[in-house]
Specification:
6 helices, 434 residues, alpha+beta, five-stranded antiparallel β-sheet, ten-stranded mixed β-sheet
Length: 434
Amino acid sequence: MSKRGGDRRLAAVLFTDIVSSTDVAGELGDTRWLRLLARHHRIVRAHLKRFGGHEQDTAGDGFFATFDVPADAVRCAAAAQREIRELGIEIRAGVNFGEVEIVDGKPGGIAVHAGARIMSASTGGVIMVSSSVKELLPGAGIGFEDAGMHHLKGLDEDVHLYGVTRIDDDPVTPPETDDDVARARRDAAMEPGVSRRRTRVLVVGAAGLIAVVAAVVVLATRDDGVPSDRAGPPRSALVGLDPTTGEQQQVISIEVQQQAGAPGQGDGAAGQGGVWLPRNANLVHVDPEHREQAPISLGVTGYLNVDTGFDRVWVTVAGVVTVNPATDELTDYVDRIPSGGAGQWGHESDLVVGNGAVWVSMTDGRLVRVDPSDPGATRAWQLTDGQLDGLAVGDGALWGFDSYAGEVIRFDPETDRADQPIHESGSVDEVAFA
């Protein structure tokens, strides 16, 4: 942002919210509504990151973000609106540009207040902007139509508003008016594993990570073609495959290479708008759609387990670290277990997100539950006297396993009780549900 004065800056402000959210929530019920809302949040945050937006606040079903450039705010709103429509819901958006006041690190003032009111003056599927935004965008490839003068609550003077009609050569289409079509889209969006976008399978080779985007689960490894006699560490690549034909569609070379014998080796995950790969003491965020990647320094070293959920990326490394997927910033570091067992974490063996919580298995046989709304609030259960080598979520339960003993243990999170172990002949390497 361009500064003017010690605590004032010029910025574009963007406000969005979901149209008729109360009605949609009532139709879907709490569980399905929260799932839909989580997908909405992921889409908005992915486009904020894509267009350089800074998330300032999230309240229920709405976002408040700032941008350095007004055109980026408009393009972000249009891209998010287009993708969110495929979920069977509509968002409205308002964009303003002006001088904002920075109070306690947060932007405020008349320009921010006006941005919120401009959004309120919008209707479903419409991106409304102030004249200050329109006047700054001649030649930016954005088309407008005059929406007239509006008296906005809390402002002394009427404001001239414009609706966005075109982004480059693509018209901003009106919202879906057929309730049955919108309802069908919502139902499709709630089907497990269904995505209306083109399905791709992403496989990371050399280091042995398999990451899956959309609905297809594939377990495989791949050498990216670097000759074996080449000096330096093994190189790896993110590979996009068409799940129907198996055709290779995309290859992204991972820039941060895993050093042989270095800490931080482990499995990665796909979700929250990206693929997340452990590399040394870094978590590498890869955006396959835009072929971008960025290393995130975790500040601690160790074996990394990664999963995504509850609008965050969760990583185990001498505790639990959380990452904001929109900003790549560390948001929490939980380094002690305050109840239900020894205070120190010890050695984590796996991490999964599911059944309303984040779960970590420990090599000393403990299962730890991390509350996603308050990561510092944890509980622990001693499931086995042996090792708890890994976890899986399925059939309404947590399933832990001891590889060496060949035991699989079912834990019911509703009753906090574990069933007697299921003994398998031989070792257990993985548990999965389909």
